[in-house]
TrEMBL record:
Required cofactor names: thiamine diphosphate; Mg(2+); Mn(2+)
Name used for this protein in its record: 2-succinyl-5-enolpyruvyl-6-hydroxy-3-cyclohexene-1-carboxylate synthase
Uppermost EC category: transferase
Cofactor binding, per record: Binds 1 thiamine pyrophosphate per subunit.
Task performed by this protein: Catalyzes the thiamine diphosphate-dependent decarboxylation of 2-oxoglutarate and the subsequent addition of the resulting succinic semialdehyde-thiamine pyrophosphate anion to isochorismate to yield 2-succinyl-5-enolpyruvyl-6-hydroxy-3-cyclohexene-1-carboxylate (SEPHCHC).
Recorded family membership: Belongs to the TPP enzyme family. MenD subfamily.
NCBIfam families documented for this protein: menD
Subunit structure: Homodimer.
InterPro entries for the chain: DHS-like_NAD/FAD-binding_dom, MenaQ_synth_MenD, MenD_middle, THDP-binding, Thiamin_PyroP_enz_TPP-bd_dom
Native organism taxonomy: Bacteria, Pseudomonadati, Bacteroidota, Cytophagia, Cytophagales
C-alpha cells in the first residue's frame, strides 16, 4: 500500500484540521479514500448510499456544528448527484470538503466506464476546485497533495464559508492486501489564521456621523443563525433608541412585542402614502437572503436614502434591494456592539440623556400588532385542521431550546406567518440558499447527528417523498422529529395567482400521489403517528416531542381545498389592515 500513503495521509490531515465527521457513499474507485477514513480511530464515518442525500446530510451536520463536514464519493454520475447540496452550501455559506474519486485523466473520452470530466464539475458553485495528481512517487507530489488539502480546508472556513472540491484521480490497485495496515503518520499542518476586517478610524467616524444625522433608522435581518448576543444588542437599540428591528423566522428574530416579525402580512397591498411613512432614511441590513416577497418589494419600491449592508467579507457586493450605498466589511455582532457603545458614550458626554422619539418604531409596531391579531383570528375559533393551523399548533408546543428545520414551499411560509416566541429560544434553519425542496429532510437528519437537542423538521409531502432516502442509512438519530404535512400533492401552486387559475393545475403543477409515510416509517424503524384533526394533533405533540430511544414521524393529513380556502380568506382580510 505504500503508493497510496498520501491518500491515507489525507484522512490524518482532516483530523488535524479539526474535521471529525465524514459522509461516504459506497463505490470501488473511491475505496482508498473510504478505507483511509473508515480505519482512522478519530473519524466518525456515516454511509449514505444516495449521494444527493449524503450531500445534504453533510450540509446539516456542518450547519449545526459550524465545522466542515467531509464527503467522499466515487467517480462518474455519482459526483453530479452531490450538486444540489453543493450549491445550497455555497449560497448558504456552509463549509464542506468534497473529495471525489476519479479515473486518471488520460482515460477521459476513451469509452471507459464512470469516466467524466470532474475537475471543475461544480463550476462557480464551490469556492475553489482542486485536482490532485494520479501518481505519488515523486516527493513533490506528496508535498503538493498535503499543501492542497491544507489550503482547501482552510478556504472552506474563511469568510464567506463554503464548499471546496478536491478531485482525486486514483489508479489500481484500490484495495490493500490482507496483511497490510494503514500508518497514520503525522503530516505537515499549515494553519490559516482567521482575520477580521477593521474599519479605519475616519470611516468609522463617518458612519457614526451618518447615524446621528439620520431621523428614521431601521435594521433588517436576513437569514441568520440564532445568536443570543446579537438579540441582546438589538433589544438595546430598539428599546432605548426606538430603532425598528425587522426579521423573519429564518432570521431567528423572535416574536416579543418589540421586534417586527409580521411584515409579510401588513406590507401586502399597502397604499403608497402609508408605505412612504414607513420608509427608513437609513436601512442597515445583515444576514443572507430574505424570505418573503412583500418585504423585498417594499424595500425596492420605497428605497432608503442610505443603505448599509454588513458582511464579514467583500468578495461579492450584495445589493438585493437595489439601494446599497455602503458595504461594511465587519462581523455584525462586533459592529452593533461597538456602535451602541460608542454612540451611547458620546451622548453621555454631551449630556443627551433624553430618550429618542419612538414614534417611528411605534408606527411599525402598530402595524405589526394588527397583523398578528389578523393571523390569530384566522387560526382561532372553530378552525379546521389545515396545514397552516397545524403549523401554528406545532410551533406553540416546540420544546424550549430545541432546533427547528423548515422545509421549503409552504411550511416555511406558514411558519413565518406564525413565528416563534422569544422565551422558547428556538434555533431555526431552512435551506434558503437556493430554496429547493430537495434535501430538506436530509439536512435535518444531518443536524440531528451533531446535537443532543430535539431536532424537528416540518415538511410537506412532496418534499418528504422526494427526499426519503435521508432515512435509508440506519440508525436514524433518535432525537429527530419529523412532522409531515400530507395534503396529497402540495398546494403552493394553488396559492400563486398564475398556476392557481390554470385548468392544468392538478395535472402539470401539483403532484398528487396517494401515498402515506407508514411504510417509509416502518422501513426506517421510526415511531409512526397520524392525525386528521387539530385536537388530536395538540394531544399527540407532548409525547411526540418527549425523549425516546427512536426517532418519530407524525403524519398530519389535510385537505388541499380547505388549505386553499383558508389562505384565500386570509388574503381577503389583509385589506382590512390598511383601512383601520
Amino acid at each position: 500500500m505504500p503508493v497510496l500513503q498520501p491518500i491515507v495521509s489525507i484522512a490524518e490531515l482532516l483530523v488535524q484540521k479539526g474535521i471529525t465527521h465524514v459522509l461516504v457513499s459506497p463505490g470501488s474507485r473511491s475505496a482508498p479514500l473510504t478505507l483511509a477514513v473508515a480505519r482512522h480511530p478519530r473519524l466518525q464515518v456515516r454511509v449514505m448510499a444516495d449521494e444527493r442525500s449524503a450531500g445534504f446530510v453533510a450540509l446539516g451536520m456542518a450547519l449545526q456544528s459550524g465545522i466542515p463536514t467531509a464527503i467522499i464519493c466515487t467517480s462518474g454520475s455519482a459526483v453530479y448527484n452531490l450538486a444540489p447540496a453543493i450549491v445550497e452550501a455555497y449560497f448558504q455559506q456552509v463549509p464542506l470538503v468534497v473529495l471525489t474519486a476519479d479515473r486518471p485523466h488520460e482515460w477521459l473520452y476513451q469509452q471507459d466506464g464512470q469516466t467524466i470530466d470532474q475537475r471543475t464539475i461544480f463550476g462557480s458553485h464551490v469556492k475553489r476546485s482542486y485536482d490532485l495528481p494520479a501518481d505519488y512517487t515523486h516527493p513533490d507530489s506528496r508535498w503538493f497533495i498535503e499543501r492542497t488539502v491544507n489550503e482547501a480546508i482552510g478556504l472552506s472556513q474563511s469568510h464567506p464559508n463554503g464548499p471546496v472540491h478536491i478531485n482525486v484521480p486514483l489508479r489500481e490497485p484500490f484495495y490493500p492486501a490482507s496483511d497490510e495496515s494503514f500508518q497514520y503518520e503525522r503530516v505537515r499542518l499549515i494553519d490559516t489564521l482567521p482575520a477580521q476586517p477593521t474599519l479605519a478610524t475616519e470611516a468609522w467616524h463617518q458612519l457614526l456621523q451618518e447615524w446621528e444625522q439620520t431621523e428614521r433608522i431601521m435594521i433588517a435581518v436576513g437569514q441568520h443563525p440564532h445568536s443570543t448576543a446579537l438579540l441582546t444588542v438589538f433589544h438595546k437599540l430598539s428599546d432605548e433608541w426606538g430603532i425598528p428591528v425587522i426579521g423573519e423566522i429564518t432570521s431567528n428574530i423572535p416574536r416579543n412585542g418589540l421586534f417586527i416579525t409580521q411584515t409579510d402580512t401588513f406590507l401586502s397591498g399597502m397604499d403608497e402614502p402609508t408605505a412612504r411613512e414607513l420608509r427608513p432614511d437609513l436601512l442597515i441590513t445583515l444576514g443572507n437572503s430574505f424570505l418573503t416577497r412583500n418585504l423585498k418589494t417594499f424595500f425596492r419600491q420605497f428605497p432608503a436614502t442610505r443603505h448599509w449592508h454588513i458582511q464579514p467579507s467583500v468578495d461579492r457586493l450584495t445589493d438585493s434591494f437595489q439601494s446599497l450605498t455602503t458595504l461594511i466589511p465587519a462581523d455584525p455582532l462586533a459592529f452593533f456592539e461597538k456602535l451602541f457603545s460608542d454612540i451611547d458614550y458620546q451622548r453621555f458626554l454631551q449630556g443627551d440623556d433624553d430618550d429618542d422619539s419612538h414614534e417611528y418604531l411605534h408606527r411599525w409596531q402598530s402595524m405589526d400588532q394588527q397583523a398578528a391579531k389578523l393571523v390569530h383570528q384566522q387560526l382561532s375559533g372553530d378552525t379546521p385542521l389545515t396545514d397552516w393551523s397545524a403549523v401554528m399548533t406545532i410551533l406553540e408546543q416546540l420544546p424550549n431550546q430545541s432546533i427547528l428545520h423548515l422545509a421549503n414551499s409552504m411550511p416555511v411560509r406558514y411558519a413565518n406567518l406564525c413565528g416563534v416566541h422569544e422565551q422558547q429560544q428556538i434555533s431555526v434553519f431552512a435551506n434558503r440558499g437556493v430554496s429547493g425542496i430537495d434535501g430538506c429532510l436530509s439536512t435535518a437528519v444531518g443536524a440531528a447527528l451533531r446535537t443532543d437537542k430535539i431536532v424537528t423538521v416540518c415538511i410537506g409531502d412532496v418534499a418528504f417523498f422526494y427526499d426519503r432516502n435521508a432515512l435509508w442509512s440506519a440508525p436514524v438519530p433518535a432525537n429527530l422529529r419529523i412532522i409531515l404535512l400530507n395534503n396529497d400533492g402540495g398546494h403552493i401552486f394553488r396559492m400563486i395567482d398564475g398556476p392557481g387559475r390554470q385548468p392544468e393545475l392538478e395535472t402539470y403543477f401539483e403532484t398528487p400521489h396517494g401515498y402515506t409515510a407508514r411504510n417509509t416509517a416502518d422501513d426506517a424503524q421510526l415511531d409512526y403517528l397520524t392525525c386528521d384533526s387539530l385536537s388530536v394533533l395538540a394531544s399527540l405533540l407532548p409525547d411526540f416531542f418527549a425523549t425516546s430511544p427512536k426517532a418519530k414521524l407524525l403524519e398530519v393529513t389535510t385537505d388541499k381545498i380547505n388549505n386553499q380556502k383558508q389562505f384565500i380568506h386570509y388574503k381577503e382580510k389583509l385589506k382590512s389592515i390598511h383601512q383601520l
